[in-house]
Structures are given as C-alpha cells and as structure tokens.
Amino acid sequence: MRGIAILAVVIAHYFGEVEHGIVVFTFGWPGVTLFFVLSGFLIGSIILEHNTSPNFFRVFYARRALRILPVYFLTITATLGFIHLYGPAPWIDEPFPALSYFTFTQNFGGSLGMIWLRPTWTLAVEEQFYLLTPLLVFLLPARLLLPSIVGGIVACYLASVLLGWDGFQMRGAGPLLYSSPVLLIGVFSAYIVRQRVKLPEIVRLIIPLAATSVVVAVAAFAPRSALYAVWPFMAALFAYCILLIMQGRRSPMFLRSRVLVGFGTISYCLYLIHQPINGVMHGLIFGGTADIATAPQFLVTCAALVVSISAATVSWFALERPLLQFGRRMSYSDTTAHPAGVASPSCPRRS
Fold first, then answer.
1. So what's the pLDDT on residue 207?
2. Rounded distance, CA 194 to CA 97, Å?
3. What is the pLDDT of residues 31-42, one digit of tens each?
4. Whole-number Å distance between alpha carbons of 145 and 170
5. For 258-309, what is each residue's pLDDT tens digit?
6. Is residue 315 part of a domain?
C-alpha cells in the first residue's frame, strides 16, 4: 500500500501537476491520504501495544527519530545548500527560512512553500501529530480512549468545515487541524484491530458505499477546493481496506507484487527527494522549471525518475535499514497493552 501511495504522488508531481501536465495524472492527493492513514495506523498500533511500558516515550521517540530525521535533514541540507550556491535563479523558488524546515514548522508558513520542498509540509504535520498523540493516549483513561478518538475525528472535521476549506492554505495550525481526522482514522483502525472488534456486516457494506458515493459526488460536481471536504471519506475507504486485510481477508494479488513492495520499502526517501532531483535536473539542463511540454523535457523527467529511485534505493540499504535495525535493539521493557488484558494481534509492521 505504501508502494501505491508513493507511485501516485511521484507520477502526479512529475507528469500531472506541472504546467503542461496530463490531467489524468493529477492524483497525488489520494496518495498523500493513504500515507496519512498508514502512518496513523502504524503509530496507533505502536502506542496501543506499548504505552504502558516504563520506557515507552524514550524508545518511541528514539525509534521515530532514527526513522525520520537522518534522511529528512540530509534532504533539507542538500536542497538548501544547492539553492544557496545556484540561487537566485528564475527556476528556483524562494524557500521558507531554513529554521522552519529544521524545526518542522514550515506548515505555519502561510503557503505550500517552494515546490522542491513542498512535500515536507506533510512530514511537519506528522511530527506534530507524533508529539501530541502518545501524550494524549497516555493521559486518557482506558474507557475514554475510543470515544476520544471518534470525538477527535468528528470535532476536527466539523471545525474544518466551520473555518472553511480555503483555510487549508497553511494558516497557522490549519494543516494539522485538517489532517488530524485522516490521521485519527488510521489510529481508529489500529484500535479496531487491537481490540479484535469484528465489524458488523451492515457496517462493512455501508462504509465503502457511503464513502465512495461522497467522494465521487464531490469530485464530479463540486469545485476543486471542495475536494478537501471529502478527505476523511477517502481516508475511510483506505482504512476499510486495511481492516479487511488485518481481519483475515486475503490481500489482492497486486498488493503482494514485488514491485509495489519494493517501492513501498524506499517510499520515505523517494517522497522527500523526487521533487528536488527533478527540479535540479530541469534547471541545470534547460534553465527552467520542471515540465513535460517537449520531448527533451519529458525524457529528462523520466531520467529524474530513474535517478530518484536509484538514490532512494541506495539510501535504504546504506542508511535507513541500518538505522532501523539499530533502533530495534531498543526494546520496550513492558508489552502490556492499554487497555490492559488485550492480546496483540500477529501482524507484520515496520516500527
């Protein structure tokens, strides 16, 4: 599923969301939505399984730091360093102040930011979510956990509606508010799996039917700005797929494809570096921003894709995988779950 998400994002950025892009390839938002749901599910699973451990916060944040920070900081440093050396240039946007990127506060910048580092706003939102969610789960009594998750989804969504969807454009804490329902839907899925709650058959029918109807209706008849309103409904569809697989339904053959699994493995680095690499190659070769208007531009975009995939693969084997293995040496000293007495389901996951 990570492989599907990263392919949707990269193809959209390279071949859809450029000046002369192909309209049918502008499907990056579903990919971002899937990433958010998967992140919420992963983090929710870890928190619910280990939050009563005496060393929970130390191990949790150490592992998260090892997973996220090295590749992120390398990408930010290299990109800003290149801009400093070659800028100003007509094909280089003005970035936010470096401090905002290094402190994960670029989502407060009032806009989406320069195109090369634009994907990093989602990392900022996730980091803020990672800081808040474990604390809230730790402080909440067990009986209030599920009502709080559901209430958080509803409250954040309603607040977004009241504030207006145009507020998504990076005003203050807006990105975190608008993204929270999607992330919490992932956490809710983790809770369902953790508690081994079997969804009633009527719910299994209603969720995909209702969510699909809303997404299709808004996409077909509403203005583009209203698409943000269906973000949680799209997330519900992805969460539904996760629940079906985790509760014993055999995953479709294409999800077990080695190609998709491979892209999913390198997805984090590829997500961060694909825009800078494409922008730098087009800028140095053509002296302009990335586009596919001509055959040479299209070929350079394809070459940038190959370079990005290759660099992400090297990053995985040389940096990310060793750091993950090191992080797994730090174990939680107590695996008692919260709520207590619930056994952990056996499910593969990357922590």
1. 78
2. 41
3. 999 999 999 999
4. 29
5. 999 999 999 999 999 999 999 999 999 999 999 999 999 999 999 999 999 9
6. yes
Determine how many CB atoms are found less than 10 A away from the CB of residue 267: 24
Q: How far apart are CA 191 and CA 205, in angstroms?
A: 20
Give residues with Cβ within 8 angstroms of 205, minimum separation 6: none
Interatomic CA distance for residues 231 and 225, integer angstroms: 11
Helix axis angle, 120-139 relative to 174-194, nearest 10°?
50
Q: Is residue 210 part of a domain?
A: yes
Q: Which two tokens stand for residue 118?
A: 């634009």
DSSP codes of every residue in 43-76: HHHHHHHHTTSTTHHHHHHHHHHHHHHHHHHHHH
Domain with 42, as residue range(s), is 2-327
Stretch (H or E) spanning 84: helix 56-86
> 178, 183, 192, 181: which is closest to 146 by C-alpha?
192
Does a structural domain hold residue 341?
A: no
Measured between alpha carbons, how far is 283 from 281 in angstroms, rounded to an integer? 5
How far apart CA 313 and CA 265 sit, in angstroms, is 9
The pLDDT tens digits for 218-249 are 666 666 556 667 888 889 899 988 988 887 77
Instruction: State the DSSP string of 151-193.
Output: HHHHHHHHHHHHH-GGGGTT-TTHHHHHHHHHHHHHHHHHHHH
Tell me which residue has tokens 């695996």.
335
**Cβ atoms 37, 236 nearer than 8 A:** no
Per-residue pLDDT for 99 more than 90?
yes
List the structure tokens of 231: 């973000």
In a domain, 335, yes or no: no
CA distance 317 to 25: 30
Which amino acid makes up residue 94? Answer: E
Comparing CA positions, the residue from 67, 81, 82 lying closest to residue 315 is 67
How many domains, the chain? 1
Q: Give me the DSSP letters along 91-118.
A: TSPPPPPHHHHHTT-GGGSSS---GGGT
